């Protein structure tokens, strides 16, 4: 078991042992304040955000400087480059694309289950979300890019591991991780280089990225932006869908209730707006993100002194905001470890899983349209049953996955036409009926 994965399990333990309390601990000899209270996270991420810079040296080292890792002017230039694309995307087209690729994913998952697989293959979910992302923003089929997602996933895993090894440590793990990084990084960068070729993709976003990359006045590198965009935009929704399948299988009555509400609501209209208005589905998405936030922690560093929840924070303090801790706060709900569709909550994942303040997730709206469309297809086209009652153990590789894969059998359900209609609206290809 790697150190980073153990840490994710430890975060769940902390949320129980020190519920609604911040905790000081040492990680590899480095003092860290783990924030588990929403009001204190609000101070760090929003109210006094300018005092807390991102603490992602490891991320920068493994994946290169990008919008995700930078602060100040270097971040602002990158945000201005991409955010308007992420905000003003064509929602109906995203819905139609997500519907199309979800059909293909369900077919693959069901075939694997029929052939005896006891767990869901994360790679199928990853390919489903990356396909929507790449078609939506880069205008090409992911399958035609030749990008090896396995390399990117390994790089993320290696980078996450590396983040738990402070400089100067010479453990075997450190040496092993460091030894793997350069080759992986070279392979991933080589993969993304193909987007420099003329005509590689018909995309305004890519054209803007290439133009800024060529401008010597700044240090934006196309490959770095693209690979973090792939990681931030595809791995997260794929991990969420894995946890959603697990919850559907674990709560069969909820699965049935969601299916029925979906069938009733989409009798006439299967479009993104209908799904956004469908409360049971929206609450289920929110609860999935609350119970299993795909980005379970984010790291910050105090530029100057501050006071958080009555505690003095010195300049240089390392901070980890634990979304696991914040979202399992027993002050908010009687049993925070249970799926609870009765509460509206304050938005997806209790309003926190996408973070908040100036560094809120850039793709939040895109992710929510996409997740609703994925789930609409999964619920109407498949049945989910648990293959193991064992409680989850967590595996962190920048996203939180389940160690060994989600123990879920995927069976086929009878076809239904209403959701398929979405694909016709935007004129995208139809997935074959089951
Ligand atoms: C369930 C899906 C997702 C979740 C839970 C999620 C969560 C997060 C979180 C917590 C952050 C803040 C990280 C930090 O401050 O260290 C973040 C940042 C970001 N996310 Fe997402 N994300 C999701 C999907 C997406 C998608 C689909 C895209 C792209 C289309 C995206 C693009 C970004 C970008 C660009 C940032 C950096 C924002 C900035 O600092 O300017 N995310 N995300």
Describe the model:
With about 425 residues, the chain is an alpha+beta fold. It has one domain (about 5-425): Cytochrome P450 (Cytochrome p450). The protein has 16 helices and 11 strands. It has helices at about 5-15, 40-45, 55-65, 70-85, 90-115, 120-140, 150-160, 170-195, 205-215, 220-250, 250-265, 270-275, 280-290, 325, 365-380, 415-425, and strands at about 25, 30-35, 50-55, 295-300, 305-310, 310-315, 320, 380-385, 395, 400, 410. The strands form 4 sheets. It has a 5-stranded mixed sheet with strand order 1-2-7-4-3. Strands 5-6 form a two-stranded antiparallel sheet. A two-stranded antiparallel ribbon has the order 8-11. A hairpin with a 2-residue loop joins strand 1 and strand 2. Helix 5 crosses helix 16 (about 415-425). The chain is globular. The structure holds protoporphyrin IX containing FE.
Question: Strands, helices and their partners?
Answer:
Layout: H1 3-17, E1 23-27, E2 30-35, H2 38-47, E3 52-54, H3 57-63, H4 72-87, H5 91-114, H6 122-138, H7 149-162, H8 172-193, H9 204-214, H10 222-250, H11 252-265, H12 272-277, H13 279-291, E4 297-302, E5 306-308, E6 311-313, E7 318-322, H14 323-327, H15 364-381, E8 382-386, E9 394-397, E10 399-402, E11 408-412, H16 417-425
Parallel strand pairs: 2-7
Antiparallel strand pairs: 1-2, 3-4, 4-7, 5-6, 8-11, 9-10
Helix pairs in contact: 3-7, 5-6, 5-15, 5-16, 6-10, 7-8, 8-10, 10-13, 10-15
Bound molecules: protoporphyrin IX containing FE.
């Amino acid at each position: 078991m790697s150190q980073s994965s153990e840490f994710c399990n430890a975060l769940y333990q902390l949320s129980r042992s020190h519920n609604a309390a911040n905790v000081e601990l040492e990680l590899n000899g480095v003092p860290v304040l783990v924030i588990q209270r929403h009001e204190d996270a609000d101070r760090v991420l929003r109210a006094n955000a300018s005092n807390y810079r991102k603490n992602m040296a490891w991320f920068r080292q493994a994946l290169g400087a990008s919008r995700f890792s930078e602060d100040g002017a270097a971040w602002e230039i990158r945000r201005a480059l991409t955010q308007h694309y992420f905000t003003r995307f064509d929602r109906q087209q995203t819905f139609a694309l997500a519907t199309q690729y979800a059909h293909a994913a369900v077919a693959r998952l069901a075939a694997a289950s029929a052939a005896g697989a006891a767990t869901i293959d994360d790679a199928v979910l990853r390919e489903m979300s990356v396909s929507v992302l790449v078609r939506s923003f880069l205008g090409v089929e992911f399958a035609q890019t030749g990008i090896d997602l396995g390399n990117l996933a390994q790089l993320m895993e290696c980078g996450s591991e590396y983040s738990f090894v402070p400089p100067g440590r010479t453990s075997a793990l450190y040496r092993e991780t460091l030894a793997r990084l350069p080759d992986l990084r070279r392979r991933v960068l080589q993969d993304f280089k193909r987007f420099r070729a003329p005509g590689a993709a018909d995309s305004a976003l890519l054209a803007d990225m290439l133009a800024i990359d060529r401008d010597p006045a700044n240090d934006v590198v196309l490959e770095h932006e693209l690979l973090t965009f792939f990681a931030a935009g595809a791995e997260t929704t794929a991990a969420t869908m894995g946890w959603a399948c697990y919850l559907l299988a674990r709560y069969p009555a909820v699965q049935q209730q969601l299916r029925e509400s979906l069938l009733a609501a989409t009798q006439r209209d299967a479009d993104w707006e209908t799904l956004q208005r469908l409360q049971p589905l929206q609450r289920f998405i929110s609860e999935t993100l609350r119970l299993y936030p795909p980005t379970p922690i984010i790291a910050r560093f105090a530029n100057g002194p501050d006071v958080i929840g009555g505690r003095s924070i010195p300049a240089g303090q390392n901070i980890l905001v634990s979304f696991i801790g914040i979202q399992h706060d027993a002050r908010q709900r009687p049993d925070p470890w249970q799926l609870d569709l009765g509460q509206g909550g304050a938005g997806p994942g209790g309003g926190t899983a996408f973070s908040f303040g100036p560094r809120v997730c850039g793709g939040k709206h895109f992710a929510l349209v996409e997740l609703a469309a994925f789930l609409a297809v999964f619920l109407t086209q498949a049945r989910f049953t648990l293959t193991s009652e064992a409680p989850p153990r967590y595996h962190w590789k920048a996203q939180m996955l389940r160690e060994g894969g989600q123990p879920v059998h995927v069976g086929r359900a009878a076809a239904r036409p209403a959701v398929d209609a979405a694909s016709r609206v935007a004129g995208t290809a139809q997935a074959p009926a089951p």
